[in-house]
Design goal:
The chain is α/β, with parallel strands linked by helices. The chain is 34% helix and 25% strand. It has two domains: 87 residues, Nucleotidyltransferase, domain 5 (2-Layer Sandwich); 148 residues, 2-Layer Sandwich (Nucleotidyltransferase, domain 5), CATH 3.30.420.
Length: 257
C-alpha cells in the first residue's frame, strides 16, 4: 500500500488541509476556519470528520506522516498532540530545501512563505515573484539562481475591508462582488470598486515596484491565497491555488524519514 501524507497549512484565518500520496499526487483537500482555541481532541475529531472516505476509514487510518506550516504558534503543540504517534514535520528555515535564503535573519521568515517558494519552484523556473493574498498579502522574490531575496507584506483584502467597516460608521456592509467598471455610481458599487479593483491595482503596482527595485528584467508571476478568488489579476499572473500544499509536499520529500 502506498504511503500517504497529511499536509496542513494553518493560516491566521483559514487552514488548508490535503492528503497526498508520498510518490506524488493529491488525494483530497479541505479548507476550514482556523480556531486558535481548538483542543487536540477537537482537532483530531475535526480532521477525522472532514476526511472520512467511502470505506469508512478516517484520515488517521490512512496517513503515515504529517507535514505542516503554521503562523499560529499556539496550535503547534495542539496539532502535534492531535497527530498522536504519527511523525510530524514542522516547516522552518532550518530544514533541507532546494533554494537559498539570502536574508540577514532567515529564521524570521514565515513557514507559509517558505512553502510558497518551494511550491512555486515546482511549477516554474526562477526568477519568480510570488503573491499570496490571505489575511496578509505577501510578496516573495526569488532571484535567477533560486535565492529568496526578500519581498513585502501588506494588510490583506478582507483585513482592510473589515478595518474600513469598523472605522467608517456610515459605510454599510456590502457583498464583496467585483464590479467590471471601476467607476461606481452608488455607494455600494463605489465600495466594491475601491476594495476589489483597488486591491488589484495594489498588487499589480507593488509587483512592478518590487521587480524594478530587484533589477529583474523579467520574472514569472505566481498568485495564490484565499482572497485570490475574489479579484482578477492581469494575465501575466499564473494562478496556483494549491501552491502552499505543493510546497509542504516538497519539504516532505526533501526531509524524508
Amino acid at each position: 500500500m502506498s504511503e500517504h501524507w497529511l499536509l496542513l497549512d494553518i493560516g491566521n484565518t483559514h487552514t488548508v488541509a490535503g492528503i497526498f500520496r508520498a510518490e506524488g499526487g493529491p488525494v483530497a483537500e479541505m479548507r476550514f476556519r482556523t480556531d486558535p482555541h481548538c483542543t487536540a481532541d477537537e482537532y483530531r475529531m475535526l480532521l477525522r470528520q472532514l476526511f472520512q472516505d467511502p470505506l469508512g476509514r478516517s484520515v488517521w487510518d490512512v496517513v503515515d506522516r504529517v507535514i505542516l506550516s503554521t503562523v499560529v504558534p499556539a496550535l503547534e503543540r495542539v496539532v502535534a498532540q492531535a497527530c498522536g504517534d504519527l511523525s510530524c514535520l514542522f516547516v522552518n528555515a532550518g530544514l533541507a530545501r532546494d533554494f537559498e535564503l539570502d536574508l540577514p535573519h532567515p529564521e524570521q521568515l514565515g513557514a507559509d512563505r517558505l512553502c510558497n517558494v518551494a511550491g512555486a519552484l515546482q511549477r516554474a523556473a526562477a526568477p519568480l515573484l510570488i503573491v499570496d493574498a490571505g489575511t496578509a498579502t505577501t510578496f516573495c522574490l526569488v532571484d535567477p539562481v533560486r535565492g529568496y531575496i526578500g519581498g513585502a507584506i501588506v494588510p490583506g483584502l478582507e483585513t482592510s475591508w473589515r478595518a474600513l467597516q469598523g472605522r467608517a460608521a456610515k459605510l454599510f456592509a456590502v457583498e464583496l462582488i467585483r464590479p467590471d467598471n471601476a467607476v461606481g455610481n452608488t455607494t455600494e458599487t463605489q465600495i466594491q470598486s475601491g476594495v476589489l479593483q483597488g486591491y488589484e491595482a495594489l498588487i499589480e503596482g507593488m509587483a512592478d515596484r518590487l521587480l524594478r527595485d530587484a533589477g529583474f528584467a523579467q520574472a514569472t508571476l505566481v498568485a495564490t491565497g484565499g482572497c485570490s478568488r475574489l479579484i482578477r489579476l492581469s494575465e501575466r499572473f499564473r494562478l496556483e491555488p494549491d501552491l502552499t500544499l505543493l510546497g509542504l509536499f516538497r519539504y516532505g520529500q526533501l526531509n524524508d524519514k
